[in-house]
UniProtKB/TrEMBL annotation:
Name under which the protein is recorded: ABC transporter ATP-binding protein
Pfam families (UniProt xref): ABC_tran (PF00005), DrrA1-3_C (PF13732)
Record carries keyword Nucleotide-binding: yes
Similarity remark: Belongs to the ABC transporter superfamily.
Record bears the keyword Nucleotide-binding: yes
Gene3D superfamilies in alphabetical order: P-loop containing nucleotide triphosphate hydrolases
GO molecular function, one term: ATP binding
Keywords of the record: ATP-binding, Nodulation, Nucleotide-binding, Transport
InterPro entries: AAA+_ATPase, ABC_transporter-like_ATP-bd, ABC_transporter-like_CS, ABC_transporter_ATP-binding, DrrA1/2-like_C, P-loop_NTPase
Record-annotated ABC transporter domain positions: 4-232
Length: 308
C-alpha cells in the first residue's frame, strides 16, 4: 500500500517548469529520500504534498484517496527548510500552541511536550524565547513540534542542518523509532551519505524532471560499473592483459575495471596465471554521491528549463 502517490504533477512558475510531469509512489512505512541539486523542484514538490500549493495539473493521492489538504493535513508533519517558529514567543507556550493547532487537546499536548523535552534535554528551555536559541537548538525544537502529533507521514527538509554530531544522532535515532512505529518518512537533503545510511527508497529530480526512482540497493546495483577491489599478500608486478584495467593501486590492493564481455572469473584467472597471491576480491558499488553527480551531469546539457 502506498501512503502517497503523485501522478503527472506539473507546477509552473511564470516562465519556469519547476515540476514537469513527475509521478512516483511512496510505500507506507518507508524512509524515502527526495533528492536533487539546487533548484531541482524538491521544495515545490513538498509544498504540493503538504497542500501549501496546488499543482497546475496532475493528481496526488493520500492513502489511496484523492489528497484533500484540509482533511489530510492533520496526518502530515512538515519540517520545512526555512524554519517557521515565532521568534519572540516562549518555547513551551509555542510548542503547546502549535500542538493544539494540529488538533491535540491541551492535556495530551502538555504531556507529550514534557516527555519530548525530557528526552531531548530541553526542560530548562520552557520559558526561553526562540530568539535566545542557537541554530541547532531551534532545529531540535522544530523537530519536536513536527513530530508531536505523531503524523503518519513525516516530511523532513534538511533535518540535520546546523546540528552537531551528537544531536544529529539523537534526531536520527528518533527518525528510526518513528519509522519502526509505522510512520512514513520523506527526507529531503543534499547530503548523500545520510541518504545512503537512512533511506530505503529514493527519487532523484533535476530541472523539474524525475531522473531516478527505486530502492537504494537496486539503484546502486543498476549503476554498478564492474569495478572490483583485489587484495594481495604482495602487490603483483603489472602485466599485459585484455581482461581488466587497473584504475587504482594502494598498499596491497588493486582496484580494477573489468572490460566488456569478461567476467570476475576471468580476472581471477589472469591473476592466477600470473601467480599472484590474492587474499580478497570484492565488487565495488558506486556511492549514491557518485550516482547523483553522474546522473545530474548527464542531464545538465540534455535539458535546460524550457519556456512555458
Ligand atoms: N515562487 C517562485 N517563483 C518563481 N520561481 C520559483 C519560485 N519558487 C521556486 N522557483 C523556481 O523553481 C525551480 C525549483 O525551485 P525549488 O525551490 O522547488 O527547488 P529545490 O529543489 O527545492 O532547490 P534547493 O535545493 O535549492 O532548495 C527553481 O528554478 C526556482 O528558481
Amino acid at each position: 500500500m502506498n501512503i502517497l502517490e503523485l501522478r503527472n504533477i506539473k507546477k509552473y512558475y511564470a516562465t519556469q517548469k519547476a515540476v514537469d510531469d513527475i509521478s512516483f509512489a511512496i510505500p507506507q512505512g518507508s524512509i524515502f529520500g527526495l533528492l536533487g541539486p539546487n533548484g531541482a523542484g524538491k521544495t515545490t514538490l513538498l509544498r504540493m504534498i503538504t497542500g501549501i500549493f496546488y499543482p497546475d495539473s496532475g493528481n496526488i493521492f493520500f492513502e489511496g484517496k484523492k489528497f484533500e489538504p484540509v482533511k489530510d493535513i492533520p496526518f502530515i508533519g512538515y519540517m520545512p527548510e526555512e524554519r517557521g517558529l515565532y521568534k519572540k514567543m516562549k518555547i513551551g507556550e509555542q510548542a503547546l500552541y502549535l500542538a493544539m493547532l494540529k488538533g491535540m487537546d491541551r492535556h495530551e499536548a502538555m504531556k507529550k511536550i514534557k516527555d519530548w523535552f525530557v528526552k531531548f534535554e530541553m526542560q530548562s528551555w520552557w520559558n526561553k524565547k526562540v530568539d535566545d536559541l542557537s541554530k541547532g537548538m531551534s532545529q531540535k525544537l522544530q523537530f519536536v513540534i513536527t513530530v508531536l502529533h505523531e503524523p503518519k507521514l513525516l516530511i523532513l527538509d534538511e533535518p540535520f542542518s546546523g546540528l552537531d554530531p551528537v544531536n544529529s544522532n539523537l534526531i536520527k535515532d528518533e527518525i528510526y523509532k518513528l519509522s519502526q512505529k509505522g510512520a512514513t518518512i520523506i527526507f529531503s537533503t543534499h547530503r548523500m551519505e545520510q541518504v545512503e545510511e537512512i533511506c530505503d527508497r529514493i527519487v532523484l529530480v533535476n530541472k523539474g524532471k524525475k531522473i531516478l526512482d527505486g530502492s537504494v540497493k537496486q539503484i546502486k546495483f543498476d549503476c554498478k560499473e564492474n569495478i572490483f577491489k583485489v587484495g594481495f599478500n604482495e602487490l603483483p608486478k603489472p602485466f599485459e592483459n585484455n581482461v581488466f584495467e587497473i584504475v587504482n593501486s594502494k598498499d596491497t590492493f588493486l582496484t580494477v575495471k573489468i572490460n566488456e564481455r569478461y567476467t570476475p572469473a576471468d580476472v581471477l584467472e589472469q591473476f592466477l596465471i600470473n601467480k599472484s597471491s590474492i587474499i580478497s576480491f570484492n565488487e565495488i558499488l558506486p556511492s549514491l554521491n557518485d550516482i547523483f553527480i553522474k546522473k545530474v551531469e548527464d542531464t545538465k546539457l540534455a535539458r535546460q528549463f524550457e519556456e512555458v
